[in-house]
Amino acid sequence: MRIDIMTLFPETVGDMMNESILGRAQERDFIKIECHQIRDYTTNKQNQVDDYGLYGDYLAVLTKAKLTLYERDGTEKLVVPVSMTDPVLKSPCGKTFCQADAKRLAREFDNLILVCGHYEGIDERFIEECVDEEMSLGDFVLTGGEYAAMAIADAVCRLCPGVLSTPECYENESHWDGLLEYPQYSRPYEWHGRKVPDILLSGHHANIAKWRRKMSLRRTRERRPDMYAKLDLSSKADQKLLAEIEAEDRAAQAEQK
Predict the structure, then answer these.
(1) Where are the alpha helices (DSSP H) in 63-145?
(2) Are 2 and 138 spatial neighbours (Cβ–Cβ below 8 Å)?
(3) pLDDT value for 101
(4) What's the pLDDT score for residue 124?
(5) Where are the alpha helices (DSSP H) in 74-140?
(6) Nearest Cα to 69, choosing from 101, 24, 93, 34?
(7) What is the pTM for the complete model shown?
(8) Which pLDDT score, from 0 to 100, does residue 84 have?
């Protein structure tokens, strides 16, 4: 997987992308992340990439000089302008990025190009000409698209073969199968009067797996009812776990009364 990030701050973005897990994965050639200074592709002496919009807004405009960057390359590449604004109010065509998108991009593409917008955004003509998808992190405004680009690059790259030690490292995490992840614990056994659930110390792998599934169901139902509503919980195993959760909730309510 190769990811090219078009930005006005390549050093800052590059430093972040070369640390920790992604840094080690690049050293081992599992992935490659390149940051490009947009100003390097300008044709004016001032290396100017922004200009006034037609209504007085200040835009980070990607001009014809930037379009030729992709025209010189004969291979097909996915170009994603990373939205820095509210996808509903400012970028109505900007889809909110989610784990399913990370899976799809990691599976279907060998090269992604992430374009970071600034100020009021990117000239619409560039989006129409070169962009395959427009994405946003959510309903909030950021200073620039770099934060979103790094988040998307991280989410995609960690799913590439070799980046993490085994697929289990991400298959058991939140959002992989529509559930939030179960609670995690470490040593010591007791901390500030709070103890690790005894079942996790039992050594019984089947019961531990059942407990983790139940905790994921409970946490998703309580914290993300929108995700919970989309789950297929028709299996006998899940129905049994849901019955246990309901019984535990009734017992807790009775105890409080």
Answers:
(1) 64-71, 99-108, 124-130
(2) no
(3) 93
(4) 75
(5) 99-108, 124-130
(6) 34
(7) 0.79
(8) 45
Rg (CA), the chain: 23
Task: For the chain, report the end-to-end CA distance as a whole number of angstroms.
Answer: 57
By CB neighbour count within 10 A (0-12 exposed, 13-18 middle, 19+ buried), where does 102 fall?
A: buried
Position 49 scores a pLDDT of: 67
Q: For the chain, how many helices (H) and strands (E)?
A: 10, 10
Helices (H), the chain: 10-17, 20-27, 64-71, 99-108, 124-130, 146-157, 168-171, 205-223, 225-228, 236-256
What was the pLDDT predicted at 167? 82
Residue corresponding to tokens 């019955």: 243
Report d(CA 27, CA 180) in Å as an integer: 32
CB 10 within 8 A of CB 33: no
φ, ψ for residue 201, nearest 5 deg: -100, 5
> What averages of pLDDT result for each successive group of 10 residues across the chain (257 residues)?
91 92 96 90 69 51 42 50 46 74 92 82 74 85 87 95 87 85 94 96 96 96 95 96 96 89
CA 186, CA 83: separation in Å to the nearest integer? Answer: 38
Cα–Cα distance, 11 to 169 (Å, whole number): 30
The confidence score (pLDDT) of residue 41 equals: 72
Q: Fill in the amino acid letter for 81.
A: P
